[in-house]
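ok so for the tutorial part 2 we go from a plain amino acid sequence to predicted structure tokens. step 1 is just haveing the sequence, like this:
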Amino acid sequence: MSHVRPLTLEEAPEGSRSLLEAIKEKFGKSLNLFSTLAHQPDVLGGVTQINDGLQNDLPDKYRELAYYNASQINDCEYCSHYHRKGAKKAGCSDAQLDSMNASDDKLFDDKERAVLQYSEQLTKTSRVDVAVVSQLKTFLDDRQLVTLAATVGLANLTNRINNGLDIELP
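step 2 — the prediction. this is what the tokens look like for a chain of 170 residues:
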């Protein structure tokens, strides 16, 4: 059972209501993560603003691979559930998502392996090898690299919120 009860739209503080309405419109329903964050409108607003910003620069497949990989490493069932769906929609196969092994050159191309290595290193150690960044810079510009770092950062934040508050899947 969740440590903090998700709020309904009617229960949410005024500062969270418009954000929850936008989330419901975007996803077809209010997700428990956001309904729980609604207790603190500024945090909800910050998370949704970062999430929206991640949609602009990085190819969907790279973004979803990075997010799903971090969520798998952190054992976040909630984020893994939603971002597996996002990764499949972005073109990832079940075999890729079941493996997430960055060294598997049969399942992942060089670019995907670099994204996975970046996500894994940043998640596990909060540092990334220069060689991995150099590989990424062969196909990502600086703006995209910032978006990749923010994607992994948001994944780690939401993983910890979900696990720390024991937020349940609907």
